[in-house]
Design goal:
Blueprint (H helix, E strand, L loop, with lengths): L12 H5 L10 H20 L7 H12 L37 H13 L7 H15 L6 H15 L11 H6 L1 H14 L2 H36 L8 H13 L2 E2 L1 H7 L4 H13 L4 E2 L9 E2 L1 H5 L3
Antiparallel strand pairs: 1-3, 2-3
Helix pairs in contact: 2-3, 2-6, 3-6, 4-5, 5-6, 5-9, 8-9, 11-12
Length: 305
């Protein structure tokens, strides 16, 4: 969800996990972009089991990310065929002007070779950092370059077996250090200072890794606390309570209908279980409706904020 902040898309974790029909109409554009990001990640993880990162792979990601969103008219899945620029109302006052569109296929071909060239003796983290700089500098698409570029970081970490699951996202670090992020990219472009960019990128990896490790520890602690201190209060309903808790750790936003389907039970039982989870402080109702209510596993969500 935080991956889109740097491009002006604001969707909370709770909203991102809701169904489209539960999202307020004015927020659905942002929701769709985040939903597409999740779809692109799922697609890419499966695809990487069969094929290496290629330009076709990158264009497929871009197509998934932009289709059906505000970028739907910006040639989803295609390298740009016109000049673009970064910041500035017009190209005349742009902060940075990427290469001419006629050069994009050749430059992206070179980048593809660099990404997959096993003969280059370089740390994989350094390769990923350089790849991100190169991709953002080429800016091969009319829209969505930031999202694709940041998605590729996580995908390459998985692809190179540095991560088992896509659980490390530098987007939050880039957002919190947005000015430094852009400045360090520009230093390479203007003064060829690649070292400073690499240092910045590595600091991001370190800080994000520490935050991710702490989040995993907090999740384990929360799970143990609920199992040992709260579920005992369910009595004979504990078995179904454990099933529901397992589902909430998969998706912390739920409804009575969702509970019925996920743990295969009746509506009265699902209603009772949800009420019990509310009394235990595990679930919190957020709509205020009498029907179609939505409940949040708040303590779990807070770990990611």
């Amino acid at each position: 969800m935080k991956s889109s902040l740097i491009e002006g898309t604001y969707t909370t974790i709770e909203e991102a996990l809701m169904k489209e029909e539960d999202i307020q109409p004015e927020k659905r554009d942002d929701w769709k972009e985040v939903s597409n990001y999740i779809k692109a990640m799922d697609f890419a993880i499966k695809k990487l089991l069969e094929l290496p990162v290629s330009n076709r792979f990158i264009r497929d990601l871009h197509n998934i990310l932009l289709t059906g969103t505000r970028g739907d008219t910006k040639q989803p899945g295609e390298f740009r065929k016109s000049q673009n620029w970064i910041a500035g109302a017009t190209i005349k006052d742009a902060v940075f002007i990427p290469p001419h569109h006629s050069e994009v296929p050749m430059l992206m071909g070179d980048l593809e070779q660099f990404i997959n060239n096993e003969k280059i003796n370089i740390s994989e983290l350094l390769r990923i950092a350089i790849t991100h700089y190169q991709f953002e500098t080429i800016h091969p698409f009319l829209d969505g370059n930031g999202r694709v570029g940041r998605l590729l970081i996580t995908l390459k970490l998985v692809n190179r077996n540095l991560l088992v699951k896509p659980a490390l996202y530098l987007s939050d670090f880039f957002e919190k250090n947005k000015i430094l992020y852009y400045e360090n990219l520009m230093k390479v472009r203007i003064s060829n200072d690649m070292n400073q960019w690499l240092k910045f990128f590595m600091v991001g990896v370190i800080e994000t890794s520490k935050n991710s490790i702490q989040a995993f520890k907090d999740i384990i602690e929360l799970k143990e606390r609920i199992y040992s201190q709260k579920l005992n209060g369910l009595g004979k309903k504990r078995v179904k309570g454990e099933l529901l808790l397992q589902e909430l750790f998969k998706n912390p936003v739920t409804s009575v209908t969702d509970v019925m389907q996920k743990i295969s039970t009746t509506r009265p039982t699902a209603n009772t279980l949800v009420r019990d989870f509310q009394k235990l402080g595990i679930l919190r109702e957020v709509t205020g409706f009498k029907r179609n209510r939505i409940f949040l596993f708040s303590d779990y969500i807070k770990i990611f904020l």
